[in-house]
Every structure is written in C-alpha cells, then in structure tokens.
C-alpha cells in the first residue's frame, strides 16, 4: 500500500503498514523468516536480562548492577527490533536511528528499573517487618491466653479454665476421678502468721499436689484454699489411693512461718466422674464427700466407695 500525504505534503506511513509489510509482494518469504528470527532473538535477550536481574537480586545485592543489566538488555532488544522494522520497510537503519535505539532504552529503562527495584526491596522489607510483627502478636496472644487461664499464685489453672478442661474431657467421653482438695485450718494460719505466710502455705500445698498426681492429670485452683483435680481413667479404689497419696505428700511438706514448724493438712472428697454425669453433678458429688471429710475430723480422704462408712 502506498504512503499517503497529509495537508503539509509530508509523506506519512500508516501504522499498520509496519505489520502488513511482510505480506506484500516486496517482502519475500525468506526475508520474513529472517526478520521474525531477529525479533524472537531480541525478545529472548530482553527476557534473559530480566530473568537474570530477578534471579540475581539477592545474590548481587546491588540495584545498580541489576538496573544496568535491564538497561543493556532493553538497548539490545531495541536495536534488533528497530533493525527488523526498518528491514521490513526496505530502509536501512542509519546512525541516527541506531543512536536513538540505544539511547532511549538506556534513558528510560535505567531510572524505571532503579525505582522498581527500590520499591520492591522496600515492600519486601515492609513485608518482613509485618511478618515479624504478626509473629510477635501471636506470641503475645499465646502468653496472654496462658496468663489469663492460670492462677497467678500457684501457676495452676484457674477455676474457669479447669472447669472448661474437665468439660472438654467429658465431651470426649473420658471418665475418671474428680477430687476436691481443701486446706485444713487455713484461716488460722492467716490470722496467726499473716496472709503472706498463708500464701506460702498455699503454694507449698499446690506443689505437693503437683508432685503426687499421675501423668495426664488436670489440676486447678477453684477458689480460696480449694483445688480441683481430674484424673482420666482413674476409678474404683484407685481414687482413694490417689487422694491418700496427696494427703500424705501435703502432711510431709515443711512449713515454718516465723521459723516455727507448722503442720499442713488437707481434706479430700472424691467421686468417679462417669460419662452420664455433668460437670456440675460431679462437682456436687465430690464437694459433698469433702464436707463429710471435714465433719469427720479433717486430714482424711472420703470417696464414693467409703462415703457411707465415713458418714457413720
């Protein structure tokens, strides 16, 4: 298709002339293949430069070197494309065209790639910082949840947490022993030696309980000087045996407020927490046996098996 002239008399080539020139009689099939190969090679060089820059970003650690690779690749690709387009039109690539093909990519690609890489690294640094902040937040959440579930004095589960834990075991169909442990004469210790000494006694009792319990037991402080214990799979005579082990461990604990030895003791009520009981029902049953132990002189264990005997 011949070129058209505008009002000024200057010859103007339509844009689509570049892409349809290969289909005209002026271009042979061989020329088309050569030009297509040149264009393909130029794109491969450009893509190779981009891939090298992206792959070597961490290795080279230099924005300048990466930008230089991109700019050089863009310049080479620009020269090959300009040469191919001029060849399609049957025109030579003169010095001015060659110079423009080299300078334009260098001028444009260099600052653009520098800006892009700087922004990319900045975003990566921000992403890493955000990831660290999220990790710190998760750890803080775990610590806060752990602190909220624990009794600050003894380190055991608090009332709400242990009741939730026992309810969770019950929901899974796990049966076992439920014990309520209450410190004897605790008010006398507080009144005689002060609340600080009472706190020391409470911690000593809690430590004795922890040392005695079988693996997998759940223990918590449910209020004042009372502790609740759930022992999965414990039933029958084993309930009374565990209670007696706890009572002996507490009795053997050394407690010397004002440098004077003071005996410690606990009363324990226990029951078998079967699958057909609710947590409230099991707690009431264990608490009833604890009351029997208190009424029977304290420093003893009352379980479901010996309730009638203890009451008598």
Automatic annotation (TrEMBL):
Residues in GGDEF domain copies: 174-306
InterPro entries xrefs: Diguanylate_Cyclase (IPR050469), GGDEF_dom (IPR000160), Nucleotide_cyclase (IPR029787), Rev_trsase/Diguanyl_cyclase (IPR043128)
Highest taxon in the source lineage: Bacteria
Catalytic reactions on record: 2 GTP = 3',3'-c-di-GMP + 2 diphosphate
Coiled-coil spans in chain: none
TM segment ranges: 63-86, 98-117
Stored Pfam families: GGDEF
The keyword Hydrolase is annotated on this UniProt entry: no
E.C. no: 2.7.7.65
UniProt cross-references to CDD domains, sorted A to Z: GGDEF
First-level EC class: transferase
SUPFAM superfamilies in alphabetical order: Nucleotide cyclase
Gene3D superfamilies in alphabetical order: 3.30.70.270
GO molecular function: diguanylate cyclase activity
NCBIfam families cross-referenced by the UniProt entry: GGDEF
Protein name: diguanylate cyclase
UniProt lineage: Bacteria, Pseudomonadati, Pseudomonadota, Alphaproteobacteria, Hyphomicrobiales
